[in-house]
């Protein structure tokens, strides 16, 4: 009798997330249902498309150059980079909460996700910190830009086939 009860409970534990995934498209346990990650690559494809967000800053000669993100965000862990850059370091006013698909309204109502607008003192501190980080890498500290880049990479040889800036936001630190 114990093994039948255990099997039924295990079935419920594994079946409920699967039904939620099928019906609503939400994965409660992504590592269990999708261990290879969120993106798929076609097996027979010769190219792979990737997009990422990265900061650029102005050098002393007036040209824009990519900022070393590890040094720029230190001591913040690199896996938070996308979310910090997408929210523009919290400098933008009236920001919506981070997007988790159609789950966001539920998470906001349950007070799990909060949209915190920074006050003027917080913005001033962030700007000072960002200026210092830009100076450490030899950039002008008055502005930088956050760029979303789409790349197409050849799978057989690993060469970059194309690169396109799809979104660009300039952030002024004055």
Main sheet overview: 4 strands, antiparallel
Strands ordered across the widest β-sheet: 2-1-3-4
Q: Proportion of β residues?
A: 25-35%
Query: What's the mean pLDDT score?
Result: 77
Number of domains: 2
Radius of gyration, rounded?
22 Å
Count of helical stretches: 6
Instruction: Detail the poorly predicted runs.
Output: none
Order of helices and strands: HHEEHHHHEE
Structural class computed from helices and strand pairing: alpha+beta
Helix content range of the residues, please? 25-40%
Question: What is the topology?
Answer:
Elements: H1 2-24, H2 30-33, E1 47-59, E2 64-66, H3 69-73, H4 81-86, H5 104-109, H6 120-136, E3 139-154, E4 160-172
Antiparallel strand pairs: 1-2, 1-3, 3-4
Q: What does this protein look like?
A:
The structure is a single chain. By secondary structure, this protein is of the alpha+beta class. The protein folds into 2 domains: about 1-40, no CATH class; about 40-170, no CATH class. Helices cover about 35% and strands about 25% of the residues. It has helices at about 1-25, 30-35, 70-75, 80-85, 105-110, 120-135, and strands at about 45-60, 65, 140-155, 160-170. Strands 2-1-3-4 form a 4-stranded antiparallel β-sheet. Strand 1 and strand 2 (about 65) form a beta hairpin. The longest helix is centred in the first third of the chain and has 23 residues, at about 1-25. It is extended. It starts with a helix and ends with a strand.
């Amino acid at each position: 009798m114990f093994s039948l009860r255990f099997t039924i409970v295990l079935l419920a534990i594994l079946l409920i997330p699967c039904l939620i995934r099928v019906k609503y498209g939400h994965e409660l346990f992504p590592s269990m249902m999708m261990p290879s990650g969120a993106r798929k690559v076609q097996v027979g494809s010769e190219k792979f498309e990737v997009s990422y967000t990265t900061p650029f800053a102005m050098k002393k000669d007036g040209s824009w150059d990519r900022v070393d993100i590890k040094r720029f965000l230190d001591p913040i862990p690199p896996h938070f980079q996308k979310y910090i850059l997408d929210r523009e370091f919290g400098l933008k006013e009236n920001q919506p909460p981070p997007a988790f698909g159609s789950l966001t309204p539920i998470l906001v109502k349950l007070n799990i996700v909060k949209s915190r607008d920074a006050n003027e003192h917080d913005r001033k501190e962030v700007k000072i910190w960002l200026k210092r980080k830009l100076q450490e890498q030899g950039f002008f500290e008055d502005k930088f830009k956050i760029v979303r880049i789409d790349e197409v990479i050849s799978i057989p040889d690993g060469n970059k086939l194309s690169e396109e800036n799809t979104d660009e936001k300039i952030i002024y630190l004055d």
